[in-house]
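Got a spare moment? Tell me how you read both lines of this record:
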Amino acid sequence: MKKLNIKKNDTVLVLAGSSKGKRGKVVKVLPKLSRIIVEGVNVVSKHTKPNAANPDGGIIKKELPIHYSNVALIDPKSGNPCKVGKKMNEKSKKFDRYNKKTGEFIS
């Protein structure tokens, strides 16, 4: 299982696919599949039959997962997309994410 550099509640920019150029918040991370679910991105219409949870049935809008390599993390300080790496933080004595361009740590 691969450890991803993107976490829940991060803001990301979509780099590829039908939703290219959109920004959104990460709703869920699926590390076993190397995929993430982003709010408002890769939305499909799913037709459902009536059941106990949804007695009327109908068409439901649903966000499907996209591969983590198709997104770039938005740096919270600058607001621009960035490449993310991991290195030892001297203050907390653990590996933290950092912006490879500026060298600043990302909280």
